[in-house]
Amino acid sequence: MGTHGPIPKRSEERRRRNKDDGPALAKAPAGPVDIPDLPAPDPDWHPIATDWYLSLQDSGQAAFYQASDWATARYAAELMSRLLKSDRAPNGQLVAALNSVMGSLLTTEGDRRRARIELERKPATQAVPASVTAIADYRSSIGG
């Protein structure tokens, strides 16, 4: 995994001219990628664990996953399910262990930035402010 400390900024937000940024940045498209057939979630899992496991298949970082990563994801979902179904209060060590496993799978943007992996976001469509369309409508109505 990457370094500790503050989460680095996205590459387009950084402006360093005096120092090398380190290893090359790996980029992947955000959203679903072609992945091998994976085992279905266990029907006994907690719904949140099932949702988390299925969300990995639709995430861009799945492009970097190998078979062992998917096995780790199944392990994390099983651990998460047991934690969520437990009648006892959550154990801090178990929560920390689960967060560590999820971090090693690069499931959060901060984890991916530390590992120098960025998912390319789809460009947002620029909405035209209402005032601009109102002026354009007025001009067209007066023949301008």
Can you describe this structure?
The protein has helices at residues 47-57, 67-85, 92-104, 109-114, 130-141, and strands at 26-29, 117-120. By secondary structure, the chain is mainly alpha-helical. It has a two-stranded parallel sheet with strand order 1-2. α1 runs antiparallel to α2 and α2 packs antiparallel against α3 (92-104). The radius of gyration is 22 Å and the shape is extended. The mean pLDDT is 78.
What are the main properties of this structure?
single chain, 144 residues, extended
- What is the mean pLDDT? 78
β-strand amount: 5-15%
From the N-terminal CA to the C-terminal CA, the straight-line distance is 60 Å
Shape verdict: extended
Q: Regions with pLDDT < 50 over 5+ consecutive residues?
A: none
Q: Compute the gyration radius: what is it?
A: 22 Å
The secondary-structure class comes to mainly alpha
Largest sheet: 2 strands, parallel
Q: What's the arrangement of strands in the largest beta sheet?
A: 1-2
Tally the helices.
Answer: 5
Q: Tell me the total number of β-strands.
A: 2
What is the share of helical residues?
40-55%
Order of helices and strands: EHHHHEH
